[in-house]
Amino acid sequence: MDPEQVGTLAERALEAARARGGLVNVEDLDADEAEQLGVRTPEEHLVYRWSAAVPQRFHSACLNDLERTPVSVLILEWAARPDGRNLVLVGPTGVGKTHAAVAAVRPSFERGLSVLFMPAVELFDQLRPGGPEDALDALLDADRLIVDDLGSERPTGWTNERLYLVINRRWLDLRPTVITTNLEPKTLEVEVGDRMFSRMVGSGAVVARLTGPDLRRRSR
């Protein structure tokens, strides 16, 4: 598929996601929806699903992008066999945590599993009264959930309760969650509490620290 076709499908996927409150069950496109979106071939359906699942900026993210370092080896090993374990990526702003998170779930997606990307702030907005009725189910049912930039929100009793509900249920169901955060593990533990931190990093979770210059500044 040429880049122009990919871009067109990506735009359609983004429009559909916005129209449905940001949570699109692209696995269940019916024939009419597929026709309206121009999704006709298996390749187009794959592109559409990926475009709807992750932000446009990271559509091209893949494991080959990662430099071969001890940290990237941890991420590669997790991507090959998550086995119900979480992946927690920590490090300062701009070192590529989100890119690595999306790349890490791509092999699972290409094996037919569902992926949902949700910035932490948007996750809590989705779960507030008046949000999409199926928001919680979407967060719990996704085979791979990325919670991006955890710690950017102001923690409250309510946010910690909602986050624990999501992380704990996914942990119980052996559904891996990928978390990116600027917070150091000790600070994150204080923010979310011992009980939730144990669910995040317990049971063999992979915790990888990314370092380096701010890639966003360098690309300007």
Can you offer a commentary on this structure?
- The radius of gyration is 17 Å and the shape is globular.
- Mean pLDDT is 84; it is low at 20-26.
- It has a five-stranded parallel sheet, sandwiched between helices.
- It contains eleven helices and five strands.
- With 220 residues, the protein is α/β, with parallel strands linked by helices.
- The longest helix is centred in the first third of the chain and has 17 residues, at 3-19.
- The chain has two domains: 1-53; 59-218, P-loop containing nucleotide triphosphate hydrolases (Rossmann fold, 3-Layer(aba) Sandwich), CATH 3.40.50.300.
- It is 51% helix and 11% strand.
- It has helices at residues 3-19, 31-37, 42-53, 70-80, 97-110, 120-127, 135-141, 157-172, 185-192, 194-201, 215-218; strands spanning 87-90, 115-119, 144-150, 177-181, 206-209.
Largest sheet: 5 strands, parallel
Q: How many helices in DSSP terms?
A: 11
Give the spatial strand order of the biggest sheet: 2-3-4-1-5
Overall 3D form: globular
List keywords for this structure.
220 residues, alpha/beta, Rossmann fold, 2 domains, five-stranded parallel sheet, 51% helix, 11% strand
Strand and helix map with partners:
Elements: H1 3-19, H2 31-37, H3 42-53, H4 70-80, E1 87-90, H5 97-110, E2 115-119, H6 120-127, H7 135-141, E3 144-150, H8 157-172, E4 177-181, H9 185-192, H10 194-201, E5 206-209, H11 215-218
Parallel strand pairs: 1-4, 1-5, 2-3, 3-4
Helix pairs in contact: 1-3, 4-5, 7-8, 8-10, 9-10
